[in-house]
Amino acid sequence: MTTESLIGQVQSVDTGNVSVQVEKESLLNNVQINQIVQIRSTKGGQKIIGLVSKIMRKAVAEKADVDSEPDYVVENIIKINLVGTLIAKDGLKANVFKRTLDTVPSINADCYLLQGSELSEFMNIISSSSSNPLKIGKYTISEESNANLDGNKFFQRHAVIVGGTGSGKSWTVANVLEKASKLQSINSLVFDLHGEYSPLHELDNTTLLKIAGPSNEPSDKDVIFLPYWILEYEEIESLILDRSDSNAPNQSRTLFDLIIQYKKETLTNENRQDVLDNFTVESPIPYKISDVLQSLEDLDVARDFSSSTTGRDGPLAKKLTRFIQRLNSKQSDKRLNFMFNDSEELLQYNWLLSFANQLLDFGNQKGLKIIDFSEVPSDILPLVTGLIGRLIFSIQQWMDEKDRHPIALFCDEAHLYLPAQTRGGMEEKGLKNFERIAKEGRKYGVSLVVISQRPSDVNKTILSQCGNFIAMRLTNPDDQNVIKRLFPDNLGDFSESLPILDIGEALIVGDASLLPSRVKIDQPTIKPNSATIDFWDVWSQKKTKKGIEQAVKALRKQHK
């Protein structure tokens, strides 16, 4: 290090931070918050790396004797958070940075400010440290150095991408997807709630899928149906059962028995004795909901003639009426065509295998699948997203370990279906599936990337399981506080810059980032449909074309 970059000596030492006294005021003017410093270590061949967290000037009173007035001496103090160690030689590698502290600095140890070529050299060490680089952008403090994340650790530990409206969050997601799509065997699903990422279908190895709308048929290409029979019992119960109904226990038990009965019939007809011997109500076996409905109607009007010729109401008579009405309502609701379509194709025993291939296959099909949820009703959205998440997790869990191929789920607008506060029923059932993925997914090769503009509204259990954070500009205090609590304690005030980040700029912290960094994110080649509309410019232009008539038609058809 050159003497020009020497800024002072260590004055006090704590476990994870130190104070440095700066003798010359001119040196203090060169220091900025979050700049990188290097402190001499007590171990040979090692240097301690820190981030500047606070710059202070304070007056200290000094008395020559008891009767005299105190003299005030101005002290320039820099607070530094220690983040790791730069090792001159580690085995066969030279200049290796590690996020560990073997030692802490001693009092009066020299502290140097990294700048110019020295800073570039250090940032290049950080960039080249990963053998599986995911290039995300350029470092704000060293714009000539690439900011690389460790691609393995980014997905292994789950990730969070947050940012307010217009901060560049969708660009960041598109950037990660673009880099990942170039990998030969990528396997990933994007939960696209508003059709933002549809332009990305032009990327290599990428396909665009859509949850079926009211007018779609199972024969339509790249359309996803989720028939009712793949729902777990609790999921279908939350969809059609009203717990406030006084007859809810009878309705629940009857539904349970009928589902078992008709699943048994399917297995018997298919000659699947091996499955029949071990299946449960949760086993995804096709059955006709019309058969269940007919049996419910029969039981609701059944009469018992065992004790008299005129007979009396059966044990379930008139107790299933409201339940039948709700089931009829769901079945006839065109918005739920993707779930209650009565096509024979969706009742085939092998349908589940073809659907699993559609979601998970990365060899015969394109590996990056963007699923458009824009036509799914908002009230059932948590159940639908949770259903897909559960199917992915279950298939991975039951797969032989040697055949398992890792898959990442990008959950856009996560606050809409991974809420911090659930209202019970469908929301709770869907959320439970994602909580399990967050806790256990790494064992089975399932990763979550949680994307939201309102982190304060996202489930805290899921966020706490994530080990990587890309935080863009957040102006809401509640959102800022959530991210601050998730950042490691030793980073101090690193997160204080969240509300003043530029568009496309992010704070990156976590296992995938060797050094907590402020990064200017690369713009993706293909931008998502999320660009902010320039109201004033558009209003200033003459425009004659109107889309109102077409919008009204689409509204009536519930299909664009």
Q: What characteristics describe this protein?
A:
single chain, 12-stranded mixed β-sheet, 6-stranded antiparallel β-barrel
Major beta sheet summary: 12 strands, mixed
Which structural class do the helices and strands define?
Answer: alpha/beta
Shape type: elongated
The oligomerization state is single chain
Mean pLDDT: 88
Gap from first CA to last CA: 63 Å
The radius of gyration computed from the alpha-carbon positions, rounded to a whole number of angstroms, is: 30 Å
Fold blueprint:
Layout: E1 6-13, E2 17-22, H1 25-28, E3 36-40, E4 46-62, E5 71-90, E6 93-98, E7 110-113, H2 116-127, E8 133-139, E9 142-150, H3 151-156, E10 159-162, H4 169-181, E11 188-192, E12 206-211, E13 223-224, H5 233-240, H6 248-269, H7 273-276, H8 289-301, E14 303-304, E15 312-313, H9 321-332, H10 337-340, H11 351-360, E16 368-372, H12 381-398, E17 407-411, H13 426-440, E18 446-452, H14 460-464, E19 468-471, H15 477-486, E20 505-510, E21 517-521, H16 535-539, H17 548-557
Parallel strand pairs: 10-18, 10-19, 11-16, 11-17, 12-13, 12-16, 17-18
Antiparallel strand pairs: 1-2, 1-7, 2-5, 3-4, 3-7, 4-5, 5-6, 8-9, 8-21, 14-15, 19-20, 20-21
Helix pairs in contact: 6-8, 8-9, 12-13
